[in-house]
């Protein structure tokens, strides 16, 4: 059965004011997917160093499985500083292990048994990991139930129009926030159009099943051909927003794979991401009320 859900790309340490926490969008996604009882895997690379061994140990403790290769580059770290509202600012180190994820026979076999994968633009900043991600996407099965989610995740200028364009073509679900949508609109020549119209353009141009637009405190949208769902963002006391978007994506994807409607998936994703904002770090244990 092709029932595996994969988070693919960066695995790293977020170095926060209170200490380091396991992070990286694909690992966050895979972890939350596993909390919903789905068969998740993380695909990344770490260095042959103390930080790399700690990532492997942390994955094991969290029962997070996958293909995490050890490569001759340092394990990735991100210096995270939080502003007064708990919004993170990132300093992402370059030339690290997750820039060099190898495409192996084991990874090709995993791709052939994967029903959903979430990937971003950040891990495509280097040619090695970019080619591995593209080969993985190409090796996945075809069919109406196969989900390829591009959670765009623009960071520090680590992206190009060519990379984004290729990823839009390879995915069938696009997840983007309002700031990223403004950047993409400038890059692709859609200025002066309101956010919703920009989403409709992208949905149609790239023949997407769904486009998810998150707008922070201003709510979120899910566009599908011919319909749109809007859900307001709950007001919560924010500890930090690290990983909240990844928990949204994971909850939404898990719900769709379990047969829930777009609206049901959207509403639960909003509740879970709001809860994650009330917790420190990207991988809190979710209360059972969200997991039924």
Task: Give your account of this protein's structure.
This protein has 292 residues and is α/β, with parallel strands linked by helices. It has one domain: UDP-N-acetylmuramoyl-L-alanine:D-glutamate ligase (3-Layer(aba) Sandwich). Helices cover 36% and strands 25% of the residues. The chain contains 9 helices and 13 strands. Strands 5-4-1-8-9-10-11-12-13 form a 9-stranded mixed β-sheet, with helices on both faces. A 4-stranded mixed β-sheet has the order 3-2-6-7. The radius of gyration is 18 Å and the shape is globular. It starts with a strand and ends in a 15-residue tail after the last helix. The model has no long low-confidence stretch (mean pLDDT 93).
Which helices and strands occur, and which strands form pairs?
Elements: E1 4-8, E2 12-16, E3 19-23, H1 25-35, E4 39-47, H2 50-61, E5 66-71, E6 76-82, E7 88-92, H3 105-112, E8 114-119, H4 127-139, E9 147-151, H5 161-170, E10 173-177, H6 178-188, H7 195-205, E11 210-214, E12 220-224, E13 227-231, H8 244-257, H9 262-277
Short description:
With 292 residues, the protein is an alpha/beta fold. It is 36% helix and 25% strand. The protein has helices at 25-35, 50-61, 105-112, 127-139, 161-170, 178-188, 195-205, 244-257, 262-277, and strands at 4-8, 12-16, 19-23, 39-47, 66-71, 76-82, 88-92, 114-119, 147-151, 173-177, 210-214, 220-224, 227-231.
């Amino acid at each position: 059965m092709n029932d595996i859900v994969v988070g693919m790309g960066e695995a790293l340490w977020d170095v926060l004011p209170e200490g380091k926490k396991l992070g990286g969008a694909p690992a966050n996604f895979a972890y939350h997917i596993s909390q919903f009882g789905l068969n998740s895997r993380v695909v990344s690379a770490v260095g042959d160093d103390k930080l790399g061994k700690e990532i492997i140990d942390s994955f094991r403790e969290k029962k997070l499985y996958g293909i995490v290769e050890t490569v001759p580059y340092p394990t990735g770290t991100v210096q995270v500083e939080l502003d007064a509202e708990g919004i993170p600012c990132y300093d992402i180190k370059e030339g690290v292990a997750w820039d060099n994820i190898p495409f192996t026979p084991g990874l090709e076999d995993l791709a052939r048994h994967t029903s959903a994968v979430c990937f971003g633009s950040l891990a495509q900043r280097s040619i090695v990991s970019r080619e591995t991600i593209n080969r993985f996407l190409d090796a996945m099965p075809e069919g109406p139930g196969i989900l390829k989610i591009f959670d765009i995740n623009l960071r520090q200028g680590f992206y190009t129009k060519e990379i984004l364009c290729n990823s839009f073509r390879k995915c069938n679900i696009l997840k983007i926030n309002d700031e990223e949508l403004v950047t993409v609109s400038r890059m692709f020549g859609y200025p002066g159009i309101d956010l919703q119209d920009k989403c409709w353009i992208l949905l149609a141009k790239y023949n997407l099943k769904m486009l998810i637009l998150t707008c922070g405190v201003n709510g979120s949208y899910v566009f599908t051909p011919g319909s749109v769902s809007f859900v307001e963002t709950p007001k919560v006391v924010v500890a930090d927003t690290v990983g909240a978007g990844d928990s949204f994506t994971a909850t939404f994807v898990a719900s769709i794979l379990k047969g829930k409607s777009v609206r049901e998936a959207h509403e639960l994703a909003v509740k879970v991401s709001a809860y994650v904002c009330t917790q420190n770090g990207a991988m809190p244990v979710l209360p059972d009320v969200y997991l039924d």
